[in-house]
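# step 3/5: fold
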Amino acid sequence: MPREPIPDDVRRFVLTSIPSVPFVEAMLLFKALRGQPVETSKVAERLYIPEKAAAALVQQLAGARVVEGVAGEPSSFRYAPPDELGSVLDRLAHAYVHDLIGVTTLIHSRTERMAQQFADAFKFRKDT
């Protein structure tokens, strides 16, 4: 079965706004449990990462307005993106399910490009 192409708007969103595959995996977890409070310890458990890493990941999601904190529960969050962002995240989730390799390759290409740009900043150049 041929893979569906990743839509251009999703491709741009991934390249500009998705820092890592775990970010997408955590977003998908919150999306699947839409409206339900999820503790950071559950994120760690479900993604097989340390709790400290899960807490940092959830803070990234909160900063990106994908999740919001649950009142009275400092380590609990729920999926709550604004409508426009939610629509893009729905399309990203669809692309991720139907072309996991394509989306993860796109995410990794972004991080590899950023790492190369960082490394290039430290190259010594000969004065001519």
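# step 4/5: annotate
The chain has one domain: 8-119.
# step 5/5: archive (pending)
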